[in-house]
C-alpha cells in the first residue's frame, strides 16, 4: 500500500485523446511505448502481455496502467481460451504531487490492477458509457468523455491509496450488491419472459459482463440465468395450457417467448414428462367431464 501523502491531487484536468475497443488473439502489434498514458480495461476473455520485459497473465476485470515510456505488447493467446476484448483510453496532461508528469501510480506487483466487486462494475459502466458517447455527435462530447476519464483516474488512485480498513467494507457491499443484481435480473425475467431475451442484452443494460452475471447468478440461485428464464417460461406455459383450451400449441409457445413450437414442446416435455398437447388434452377432458356432471345434476 502506497503512502497516502504522495497521492494528493492539486488539480486534475487531463486531455482526453481517444478510445478504442478491440479483440486481439495474436501478437499482431510490435513491442512499443507511447508518449502519453493509457488505460486498457479487459472486458472479457484472457491473455498475456509483455510489459517492460516481463510476462503478465491478464483476464476479465484487469486494468492495465500503461504510463508514458512503458513498453508493451499483446502476446498470442492460448487457443483454449477466449481472446481478450479490451477497452483502451488514451490521455495526457496529468500531474500528481511527487509524480512525474503524465505518470499514474501502479501496484507494487506490476502495472496491472486486478479489480473485483464494486470497482469492476464501475469500470464496466464507465467503459460502456464512453463507447456510447464516442459514437454520437452531440454538444459537449469531448467534455463528457473527459469526465468519464477523470472518474477512471480517481478510481485507480482511490483503489491504491484507500486505507486497509475500508476494503473490508467493500467486501460486505459486494455481497449485498450481488443479491440486488440477481433480484433485478429475476424481476426482468418475470416482466419480459414473452420477449426475446439474451444474456448479452442483460449485461449491456446493467453495464456488467455476461461472464460476471452468470457467475453471481449461479452463486445466488444455483442455476444459470438462461435456465432460470426457461423455467419461468415453461411454468407460465403450463398455467396457460391448464386454463385455456382454445389456443394452439404454437400460440402458447409464442406467448412465452418461443417462435419454434417444436423446440418449445421438447423443453416442456423434458421438464414435466408430458407434452404440451397432452396437458391441453387432459385439461379439455377434465372440462368436458365437469360440464357433463353439471348437466346431469340440472
UniProtKB/TrEMBL annotation:
<protein>
    <submittedName>
        <fullName>AraC family transcriptional regulator</fullName>
    </submittedName>
</protein>
<dbReference type="GO" id="GO:0003700">
    <property type="term" value="F:DNA-binding transcription factor activity"/>
</dbReference>
<dbReference type="InterPro" id="IPR014710">
    <property type="entry name" value="RmlC-like_jellyroll"/>
</dbReference>
<dbReference type="InterPro" id="IPR003313">
    <property type="entry name" value="AraC-bd"/>
</dbReference>
<dbReference type="Pfam" id="PF02311">
    <property type="entry name" value="AraC_binding"/>
</dbReference>
<dbReference type="InterPro" id="IPR020449">
    <property type="entry name" value="Tscrpt_reg_AraC-type_HTH"/>
</dbReference>
<keyword id="KW-0805">Transcription regulation</keyword>
<dbReference type="InterPro" id="IPR018062">
    <property type="entry name" value="HTH_AraC-typ_CS"/>
</dbReference>
<dbReference type="Pfam" id="PF12833">
    <property type="entry name" value="HTH_18"/>
</dbReference>
<dbReference type="InterPro" id="IPR018060">
    <property type="entry name" value="HTH_AraC"/>
</dbReference>
<dbReference type="InterPro" id="IPR009057">
    <property type="entry name" value="Homeodomain-like_sf"/>
</dbReference>
<dbReference type="InterPro" id="IPR037923">
    <property type="entry name" value="HTH-like"/>
</dbReference>
<dbReference type="GO" id="GO:0043565">
    <property type="term" value="F:sequence-specific DNA binding"/>
</dbReference>
<keyword id="KW-0238">DNA-binding</keyword>
<feature type="domain" description="HTH araC/xylS-type">
    <location>
        <begin position="183"/>
        <end position="282"/>
    </location>
</feature>
<keyword id="KW-0804">Transcription</keyword>
Amino acid at each position: 500500500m502506497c503512502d497516502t501523502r504522495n497521492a494528493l491531487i492539486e488539480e486534475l484536468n487531463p486531455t482526453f485523446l481517444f478510445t478504442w475497443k478491440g479483440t486481439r488473439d495474436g501478437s499482431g502489434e510490435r513491442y512499443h511505448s507511447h508518449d502519453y498514458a493509457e488505460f486498457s480495461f479487459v472486458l472479457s476473455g484472457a491473455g498475456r502481455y509483455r510489459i517492460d520485459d516481463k510476462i503478465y497473465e491478464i483476464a476479465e476485470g484487469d486494468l492495465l496502467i500503461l504510463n508514458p515510456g512503458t513498453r508493451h505488447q499483446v502476446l498470442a493467446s492460448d487457443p483454449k481460451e477466449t481472446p481478450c476484448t479490451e477497452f483502451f483510453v488514451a490521455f495526457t496532461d496529468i500531474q500528481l504531487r511527487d509524480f512525474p508528469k503524465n505518470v499514474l501510480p501502479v501496484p507494487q506487483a506490476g502495472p496491472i490492477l486486478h479489480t473485483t466487486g464494486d470497482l469492476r462494475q464501475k469500470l464496466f459502466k464507465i467503459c460502456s458509457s464512453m463507447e456510447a458517447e464516442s459514437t454520437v455527435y452531440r454538444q459537449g462530447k469531448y467534455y463528457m468523455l473527459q469526465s468519464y476519464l477523470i472518474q477512471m483516474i480517481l478510481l485507480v488512485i482511490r483503489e491504491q491509496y484507500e486505507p486497509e480498513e475500508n476494503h473490508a467494507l467493500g467486501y460486505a457491499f459486494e455481497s449485498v450488491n450481488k443479491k440486488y443484481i440477481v433480484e433485478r435480473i429475476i424481476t426482468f425475467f418475470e416482466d419480459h419472459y414473452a420477449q426475446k431475451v439474451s444474456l448479452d442484452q442483460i449485461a449491456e443494460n446493467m453495464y456488467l459482463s455476461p461472464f460476471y452475471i452468470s457467475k453471481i447468478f449461479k452463486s445466488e440461485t444455483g442455476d444459470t440465468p438462461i435456465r432460470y428464464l426457461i423455467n419461468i417460461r415453461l411454468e407460465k406455459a403450463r398455467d396457460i395450457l391448464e386454463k385455456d383450451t382454445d389456443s394452439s400449441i404454437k400460440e402458447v409457445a409464442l406467448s412465452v417467448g418461443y417462435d419454434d413450437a417444436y423446440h418449445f414442446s421438447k423443453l416442456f416435455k423434458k421438464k414435466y414428462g408430458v407434452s404440451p398437447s397432452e396437458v391441453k388434452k387432459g385439461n379439455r377432458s377434465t372440462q368436458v367431464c365437469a360440464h357433463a356432471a353439471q348437466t346431469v345434476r340440472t
